[in-house]
Amino acid sequence: MSDSSTVSSTVSQAFIARASAFLTGDYLPKIERCLEKLTDDQIWWRANEESNSIGNLILHLCGNVRQWIICGVGGQPDNRNRDAEFAQRGVIARDELLTLLRSTLAEVDTTLRTFDPSQLLEHRKIQGNDVELLYAIFHVTEHFSMHTGQIILLTKLLTASDLRFYDFEVDAPIER
Length: 176
Known about the structure:
Elements: H1 3-36, H2 40-43, H3 54-73, H4 82-87, H5 94-114, E1 123-126, E2 129-132, H6 133-159, E3 166-167, E4 172-173
Antiparallel strand pairs: 1-2, 3-4
């Protein structure tokens, strides 16, 4: 293997590992912290009919990562009903949402750990788009980040509390 091939392989592996670490090691704990502070009614509260509840956002995140990573990258069958993620109005309990989110991200982690990095530039049809698998993984990571931020903002609005993700005195995340 040439030096450039080795570097390319190392960068590809690092990209996949970092994407997985963001999803499971950064975004998931923040969402878990938010849900710990909320009641089921707060999780399903909507500012108006054009806004999404935190519950809808979690269903949407699960549907999105399943479609793009587990199905699109991992080759599993895709049976997503995106509209249902946003149409849900009945309360799904916090513990059930957390179980769904954790199990979906565990599947994503498994898919990414077993993914061959040499396939990153291969194309697949995902959500009707012809995309590189690198794009798919990058898209999911940034998309999950955006909705995690929305969940954090809604949690702060609903609880009027500091979620204490970081200890700025030691410049480090606070472990739960």
